[in-house]
Amino acid sequence: MSDQLKIKLSIANRVYPLTINPKQEEGLRKATKKIEAMIGQFEQNYSVRDKQDVLAMCALQFAAQVEQKSIDKEYVNEEVQEKLEALNDLLSQHI
């Protein structure tokens, strides 16, 4: 347990104490900054009265980004697979 690091992150005016692996600190701090920036954008662009609504919108935005990257990766993998099969067919014809 001595290799754990105790940090505090502030999101939407609330402090969250965490005990983490030191390797996670940079990623968590960057994520916190992104969340705070997104909160600011939502509050500026929309009339949002409740922080919970803003946080839900942030969660949806991040989840959508993750899902879109997964979809894009799947599409690229299929495209690469098709090209490899076409290349394999060409090689087979010339052997």
TrEMBL record:
Domain of life, per the record? Bacteria
Which terms are listed as keywords in the entry? Answer: Cell cycle, Cell division
Kindly indicate whether the keyword Cell cycle belongs to this entry.
yes
One of this protein's Pfam families, by short name?
ZapA
Mention one GO biological process in which this protein takes part, according to its record: cell division
**What is the name listed in the Swiss-Prot or TrEMBL entry for this protein?**
Cell division protein ZapA
Q: Which organism is it from?
A: Winogradskyella marincola
